[in-house]
Amino acid sequence: MTTSFTGPLREAEATAPSLVERLCAGEVAAVGEAYEAHHEAVRAFAGRLLGDHDAAEDLVHEVFTTLPRAIRRFRGDSSLRTFLVSIAVNHARHFVRAAARRRAAGERMAAEPTGSSRSPDEDLERQRLARALSCALDGLSLDHRVAFVLCVVEERTSSEASEILGIPEGTVRTRVFHAKQKLRQRLQRGGLP
Amino acid sequence: MTDLDELVQALRTEHTGSSDRAAATRSRVMMSLHEGKHRRRLRWGFGIPLAAVLAGSTAWAGAGGYLGPSAQAAVESIAIWLGVAEPSPAPASPSTSPARSTDAPPAPFPEDAPEAAPAPEPEPESEPPPDGAAPNTDTAAPPEAPAVEGKPPPPAPPRGASTSTSPSPTPRPAPPKATITSGGPITSEEAIPSEKASAPAEDPHLVHYRRAHDAQFAQSDCAAAVAGYERYLRQAPQGALVPEARFNRALCLVRLGRHDEAERALRPFARGRYGTYRQEDAQRLLDALGAR
Predict the structure, then answer these.
(1) d(CA B111, CA B100)
(2) Total structural domains within chain A
(3) Which residue in A40, A42, A129 is closest to B10 by CB distance?
(4) pLDDT tops 90 at residue A176
(5) Cα-to-chain-centroid distance, residue B142
C-alpha cells in the first residue's frame, strides 16, 4: 500500500462505520449518501454484467432500495462498496434474464446500435463489440457470468470476488477459467454479430 | 477474429458507471424508500392494531365458547404451536362399542343425550326412596337438597385432599378421571376411577369451569352455571375438574328444578363411579329427590 492511499483510506475507514450505522438505523438520507459514494461502481458492474444500460439502471435502483434491509447482514469485514456489489449479484438473476431477452429481441429485429448517428465510428465499433460480448455472456450460467465480469472485466482479484460471492477463491478461479473457455468456443463458433 | 480481451475492453469502456440518468435513479431510489417507509408506517399504524383486535376478539370468543368447533380447534392448535397451551385430549369419536376402556376418549357430555331425545332409563334399578313412598312429581315446590342448602359446598378432590372453592389446575391433585360413554348414560362397568390423573396438565378450558363456578357460587345464576359446566365438559372431557363440574352441574340442576336430569347426573356419584368423592352427598340428594 502506498502512502498516498493512507489518508483517504483512514478517512474512509473512519467515516464508513458511521454511514453503515446510519444505514442500520434506517436513515433514508444515509442511503442517499451511499448512493452518491458508490453508485458509479455499482452501475459499472451492473452494466458490464447485464450489457444493458436500462437494465443496469434498474439493478442500481434495486440495490439501493434493498440496502436498508440488506445492511443488517453487513458484518463489516468488507467495504460497503463490495457489499453493494454483492447485493447486485444477488439480485442480478432476474435482470440478466430481462436484459438477455431484450438483447435477443433486438438481434431478431436487427436493431441498430443504440448510440446516436453522430457518434464517431470507434464508438459504434466499441458498442458493437460490447454487445457481442454481452450476447456471448448470455450463453453462460449466471455463476460463470458473474465470476467472469468480476475478475476479467472489472479486474478484481479472486480474493475480492470470493468476498463478494461468498465462495472460496479456488471456486472463483475455476469459474473464470470455464467461463473464458466457453466464451472463446462460442466466439469461435458463432463469430461476431 | 476479435480477441476476447478486445471485447472485454470494449465492454469495460462501454459501461464505466457514469450515466446521465444517475440523478434520476437517485430520485427514484429515494422516492421508493420514502414510499416504503410510508407503507411501513401505515402497516404499523393500522395493520398491527387491526391484528391485535382480531387476535383479542378471537381469544375472547374462544374463551367464551362462541367460536365454532373448527375455529376453536384452529385457535387451540395455534396456541399449542405457540406453546401457550397444552394439547387437549382428542375429541371423542363416535363409537359403536358399548363397553369402552378407560383410555378411550369419552363422549363430550353424555347427559345431553337423554335431554335431546328422551330415552328409556338404562339403569333398570332405580334408587327407591328410603321410606318406599312413590316419587313426588309435584314440581311447584321442589325440595331443597341438603347439599345445596345455602352456599353449596365447593368441589373437592375425592380422597383426602383439602377442599377448595377456587379451582386451580396445577397445585391440587386431580380427582379420578371420569369414564364416559359416547351418547349413552354412564354404566357401572365403565365407572372405573383412573389413578393416572395424579398430575393434571394445564387445562386450557379451565376458564369455562371458572366462569361456571363463579356463576354458580358468586352470582347464583344456575342456568349460566349449567351452561358453563356443560361447555367445559364438552371441551375438556378428560379435564382435571370433570367430576367437580359434573357434581356442581347436578347441584345447579336441582336448584333449577330439573330433577330428572339432576338424578341422572347424581347417580354415578352415588354409585361410586368417582370413588368416594361426593358419594354420600349424591346419595343424600338422590334420596331427597326421590322423596319428592
Answers:
(1) 17
(2) 1
(3) A129
(4) yes
(5) 31
- Type and span of the H or E element at A185: helix A169-190
Q: Is A150 on the interface with B (CB under 8 A)?
A: no
Q: Percent of chain B beyond pLDDT 90?
A: 3
| Interface size between A and B, measured as CB pairs under 8 A | 101
Rounded distance between C-alpha atoms, residue A180 and residue B105, angstroms: 70
pLDDT by residue (tens digit) across B6-32? 889 888 888 888 888 888 888 988 888
Which pLDDT score is estimated for B5? 86
CATH number of the domain residue A139 falls in: 1.20.140.160
Which chain B residues have a beta carbon less than 8 Å from that of A99? none
> ipTM of this model?
0.76
The whole-number pLDDT of residue A39 equals: 93
The whole-angstrom separation of Cα B286 and Cα B269 is 10
Please give the average per-residue pLDDT across B110-127, as a whole number: 43
Q: Which residues span the domain enclosing A78?
A: 12-190
Q: What are the chain A neighbours of B39 within 8 Å (beta carbons)?
A: none
Q: Give the distance between the most distant pair of CA atoms in chain A.
A: 54
Residue of B6, B7, B19 with shortest CB distance to A57: B19
The DSSP call for residue B207 is: H
Q: Each residue of B236-282: pLDDT tens digit?
A: 887 778 888 888 898 888 888 888 898 899 889 888 888 888 888 88
Question: Which residues in chain B touch residue A126, judged by CB atoms under 8 angstroms apart?
Answer: 10, 13-14
Give chain B's contact residues with A (Cβ, < 8 Å): 1-2, 4, 6-8, 10-19, 21-22, 25-26, 28-30, 32-34, 36-37
Residue A5 domain flag: no
Domain assignment present for A140: yes
